[in-house]
């Protein structure tokens, strides 16, 4: 049985995420303690007893999602449930690199902290917006972005969520023009928070700033192939994974194509808070085994599937 594990990104966080497993698992408790020591944040209070507003703050959400996903993966690893491939959406890309054994947990927290600092600094100097467009092919969205962009101001596709579900980022004036132009199609247009990332060349200052810090992180060769969501192919060497982290900041995330790549895998498992990615996978592959792991019963369900179908 071929298993692919998916790690969620911003937007999957919720107050209480991981609480049941935290209460029973010393492994997860140790991850929370380590994260608190690294970032001087009370993650028990933040994840289990704060507010949606507090948890949604970019630094809090990204580090908490990474923490919960990484600790759940460690529990599964301890029970000898190991995937054949890992892939991450948004900050889940860092989770997948850590799960693959390429970077340490503290280094993952370190990189997320640096990313947030540089990104917040960039946001203070830009007038940017993001919108999500549902109901029209992403290729059409890309064309409309190009029609309204120039060398000075532009909008581009930041995330291909699915064939007809796209996030656009860019200078606010151009994004507004794209929003108006797309309305001639039967679409739904929603505003999106900056926390998901611009995933365009607008992020070049962030990429340039974090590049120095990436050199301080020891990227080992992956023990599990990591599926890149920018190039959409598995990566295993340390240098390639380091480059992929930089590429992830400035390039469109091709999640739709990443899901397509998972066609040959028998079992798709979402590791971390919520069910956003597993719901997408179920929609794409209604006949495939798909599990989201948030509590003990999810783990038992996963083990039963592997025992029953893996032989």
Number of domains: 2
**Low-confidence parts, pLDDT < 50 over ≥5 residues?**
none
| Rough outline | globular
Contiguous helical run count = 14
How would you describe this structure to a colleague?
The chain has 311 residues and is an alpha/beta fold. The protein has two domains: 3-122 and 203-309, 3-Layer(aba) Sandwich (Malonyl-Coenzyme A Acyl Carrier Protein, domain 2), CATH 3.40.366.10; 126-197, Malonyl-CoA ACP transacylase, ACP-binding (Alpha-Beta Plaits). It is built from 14 helices and ten strands. The protein has helices at 19-24, 26-39, 43-49, 52-56, 58-78, 92-99, 105-123, 138-147, 172-181, 204-214, 238-250, 255-261, 276-284, 296-309; strands spanning 3-7, 85-88, 128-134, 155-162, 165-171, 188-192, 226-227, 234-235, 267-271, 289-293. The longest helix is centred in the N-terminal third of the chain and has 21 residues, at 58-78. The model has no long low-confidence stretch (mean pLDDT 96).
Which helices and strands occur, and which strands form pairs?
Blueprint: E1 3-7, H1 19-24, H2 26-39, H3 43-49, H4 52-56, H5 58-78, E2 85-88, H6 92-99, H7 105-123, E3 128-134, H8 138-147, E4 155-162, E5 165-171, H9 172-181, E6 188-192, H10 204-214, E7 226-227, E8 234-235, H11 238-250, H12 255-261, E9 267-271, H13 276-284, E10 289-293, H14 296-309
Parallel strand pairs: 1-2, 1-9, 2-7, 9-10
Antiparallel strand pairs: 3-5, 3-6, 4-5, 7-8
Helix pairs in contact: 2-5, 2-7, 5-6, 5-7, 7-10, 10-11
